[in-house]
């Protein structure tokens, strides 16, 4: 997955935020729910099909302190899991074309 | 990211043994070794016979039958045995049972009120594989605990029991059943347990079965509104500052996701796919509920084989086929039902005579408008 990868959240998926900043991603088509932690919630809200992966990481670093060095690997893993579950699509070329 | 409603457990695919014909390994035998108890707890969910003297008279499983059942269970995948009751330690041959279990290398779990713990028994438990002991303490002071337990002096004896365990190197879990009378003592109980060397504290909700039901009816337990608030306080305030681990037995829908994914343990999942109960009278049963619900007793272990019960009993079959997809009411619509399985089949059956009835706590919470919407399937249009 390159830095210019542009992930886009499946618009049918519903984000249900909870009191402790964790959230449930609910897929109304399958009835499945997925628990995501506060950093994943931060990303999810920005998976708009415009921001690239590196822009997502930049925004995280701007807004949060103590972002770990392996944040890019975590983001890759998160995007891969979302994609596997049909919760998002990725466009590898979108940023390069724009 | 984790799936919060994993599908029902697949039939076992463990490499150690071929699964039994039904497809499910039997992992733990729950032995309700005696139907007697040296306490008379107000909240007891099975109401055993009170045994004050030193020669218990309530039905207690014979040693030979106990070992025969364990040996029958091993080829089905057994890896642990839970000893409970009534009060397991008053079983007339408890030490012999422990000595036998120590040789089997099976994991041993003991649920006790601690009153009859001796250094000899503690040593035998310690000799078992990876033992786990829980001791019930229902108040941070003697007046409260003894009131709940119905026996004067039980608090001091339970603390002595904990000391005896700690002396042999076992750090027990302390379990408190929370009710109106002791709700303000939870923090003090955690401090007491930590000071006495316990490894953790678990707060249980009083279940509305048998004597617990009478407490519910008398208004001596907490209403669901209070329980939900208390659960939030435990998660957000008590757990972060507790010197030892603290668990509480609220259903999955009321647990923060962080607690589910970051700190394993303490979740109230019905273990019904991998356990079977054995009552003090030698009958197989769903669990201890068999002492009060005859339909959930599966036959006398002296005359039926465990393999036959495990593979063919119609109640077990129905549960395996129906959980969680046939759960009703709020449990049928809950996003957590794949992991929670309706919390406790036995209790749900006790209340509604239906194996797939919903769990009372979540039913009450929904009625009170307190069920977390983020954990529900949307209502059908
Ligand atoms: S709750 Fe346990 S200790 Fe108390 S009466 Fe029931 S079986 Fe005995
Ligand atoms: S509604 Fe049922 S399945 Fe959901 S958390 Fe409550 S008891 Fe468990």
Task: Provide structural commentary.
The complex is a heterodimer of chains A (98) and B (381). Chain A is globular. Chain A has 4 helices and 5 strands; from the N terminus they run ββββαααβα. Chain A has one domain. Chain A is of the alpha+beta class. Chain A starts with 5 loop residues before the first strand and ends with a helix. Chain A has helices at residues 38-44, 53-63, 71-84, 94-97; strands spanning 6-9, 14-17, 23-27, 32-36, 88-91. In chain A, strands 2-3-4 form a 3-stranded antiparallel beta sheet. In chain A, strands 1-5 form a two-stranded antiparallel sheet. The mean pLDDT of chain A is 88. Helix content of chain A is 37%, strand content 22%. The model of chain B is unreliable at 7-13 (pLDDT under 50). With 381 residues, chain B is α/β, with parallel strands linked by helices. In chain B, α2 (94-104) runs parallel beside α3 (119-126). Chain B is globular and about 55 Å long. The two termini of chain B are 29 Å apart. The chains are: A alpha+beta (98), B alpha/beta (381). The A-B interface holds A 16-20, 22-26, 28, 31-37, 40, 78, 81-82 and B 1-5, 256-258, 260-261, 335-336, 372-375, 377-378. β4 of chain A pairs antiparallel with β1 (2-3) of chain B. Residues 251-253, 330-331, 334, 336-337, 340, 342-343, 358-359, 362 of chain B line the site of one iron/sulfur cluster (SF4). One iron/sulfur cluster binds at residues 251-253, 330-331, 334, 336-337, 340, 342-343, 358-359, 362 of chain B.
